[in-house]
Write a structure and sequence with these properties.
Elements: E1 4-14, E2 28-32, E3 43-46, E4 48-55, E5 60-67, E6 70-77, E7 91-98, E8 104-114, E9 133-139, E10 153-154, E11 158-159, H1 167-170, E12 177-187, E13 192-201, H2 234-249, E14 276-280, E15 283-287, E16 293-294, E17 296-299, E18 308-309, E19 331-334, E20 348-351, H3 353-362, H4 366-380, E21 385-386, H5 392-396, E22 402-406, H6 432-447, E23 453-458, H7 467-472, H8 479-492, H9 495-502, H10 520-548, E24 553-554, E25 559-560, H11 566-573, E26 579-582, E27 600-604, H12 625-641, E28 645-650, H13 681-700
Parallel strand pairs: 17-21, 17-28, 22-23, 23-24, 25-26, 26-27, 27-28
Antiparallel strand pairs: 1-8, 2-13, 3-6, 4-5, 5-13, 6-12, 7-9, 7-13, 8-12, 10-11, 14-15, 15-16, 18-20, 19-20
Amino acid sequence: MGVVSMRVWVCLAIAAMTSASAAFGDGETIIERFDSRGVPKIARELSAKLSMAKDKDARRSLLEVRCKPAAESGVVLGSGEDLWDWSGSGGVAFDVLNIGGSPLALCIRIDSVGEKGREASVNRCITIGPSSRRTVPISFARNGAGPYWGMRGIPEFGPITRYGFDLGELGLDLKAVARVTLFVKDAKGGESFRISDLRLFNEGSATQWIVPNPFIDRYGQYIHADWPGKVHSDDELKELHAKEQAELASAPRPAGYDEYWGWLEGPQLQATGRFRVEKVDGKWWFVTPTGRLFLSLGMDCVTPGDSTFVEGRKDWFEWIPEDNSPFAEFIGMQHGVHSMAEPINGNGRTFNFYNANLKRVYGDGWSQAFFERADKRLCAWGFNTIAFFTPSDATNASKLPYIAGAGTASNRVLEGGKGYWGKMRDVFDPSFEPLTVENIAKSCERYKDDPRVIGYFVDNELSWSGIPMGTLDSPPDQPARIAFIDDLKSKYGTIEKVNAAWGTDAKDWDSLRLPRAVNDATQEDAGAFEYRFARRYFDTVAGAIRKYDPGHLYMGCRFTLAYFPKNVVRACAEVVDVLSINAYITEIAPDQLVEYGKPVIIGEFHFGALDRGMFHTGLRTADNQAHRAQRYEDYVRSVAVNPAFIGCHWFQYCDQPTTGRVLDGECYSIGFVNTADIPYKELVDAAKDIHGKVYKIRRESGLRMPE
């Protein structure tokens, strides 16, 4: 096998905070100090000018990089001949000084060369102000045990891929590191920075810590920065809440809507006593029980926050309550989490800072007060739907329409399948239909008599991609595999004929696998089974809902763009009342999904920014809170313009814990409120504005569903 170059990308956005370079500690090995009279041989220009410059603060020379206009402008560090062996190190670090007058976006690329190398990527953001200096450590985490484990974004770096250069995931060959490249992407030509002291550090070295511990305060906020809305005392927290309470008390319910938030300026349609869908003037709409047009503007996860692990991370926190503290009720234990907690084997002590902040404001009645405040906020902000992943406490405290949930079940999954949240259930297993019907019947009994229920989401973000491959990769006794093989036997008769059609060389039916390179015959057969599998799933669910609650809508399984095969979506559209998809994109295209002929609802979307003390933007990024607000308006507007779409639900009500939720380490800045339960004013104002316009925007849009 030939030599393969393997590249790891790290994107560093150098922005506004400051920190001094760390002094060398025990267990650090200098690779290059960059303090020679001339540019060292290790450094080569990459569409940039290199020189040595005196640094007054450090009283020494540093390597200065002045960028030129280019797709990549910076410096390549490496001999070009010899390879570095970093296999015994915990990470690599260097000091960088931004000498420009503006924030700098700096990228790092590490190349290794090995027989079995493969490409991989990881992105980070670090915050350093203009004319500021800091140490940049890159940890070579093993098995998820990086210094900031349990967090998908880390202090001042922002989003990362798992724990940084996680060798188990990325395959970086530390025994054969060829070069390190520091560069500005799409450089304009005015960017400049200085670097010094490229060095290795051992696991456990102080160098791996980007900021001093503790870095989380008693309110669950980042300690080493300040921003508008940050809470500094209990009195300040109470004052902020009291001010908002007064504003909510004087805020009238938005006018122009009926008791179910149906649009009174629209036509009076048939009143059926339940939510339904109807195409009016070529556009799909929800219709309220009273016969008014309705677009679902929803909020997911109206719940009092997530807990974060404190197990094994006690030094991170300024304060964790004692077991006899009034806040001890927010201490918990978590077992068997999904991911990101390998150092404690997924088990450990947790704490909920958001709940503690609620108690500081409301006292022992904090839980009921939370749901009452949330209802007032949602109404004042123009939201008309309590959406998915929300407990009954929220719907009981509100008169808003809401989404009901249910789930399928089976004793077997596709053992050869894959999926982020888990493998797909085997719909051909004899247990699938009775267990699923039993589950749905229980949900329907709970919701069938409530006219505020819009409809049912059943399941969430299932692993639809790769169903045919996962089926044939499963053992011979897998029910879905047996069904697929039976289809092939009916069509071809013998394995030899399948091999001839597919271009495979299976010795028998048990050894047949889907080829990685599919031809027309393979694609046709795989697609037919994929469609059959999906129809069996959707027919089972739809049959149960229409038997036990025929008055409410079946609104699909909340697809993701990552698991969105056309055959599956086609099968879904033939069965459901409303298609649902979690669409983390900038906005909805005017003709998106209209080809399926069904109304569509967005189950999840969001945008996040890093200007308020959080470390991860979530799945879609905004530059700051103002940009975040604008993106919200643009997204909702795009939904209103598309004739197929009848609503969108924001994920989620409150920010995730700064140090990551226990389930999987998500620490996204995606809430309408922060961890102190303080609303993001820019986002709230944008929501009020666009929600007040959305019906007229849709009415005035000239787009229609295709005939």
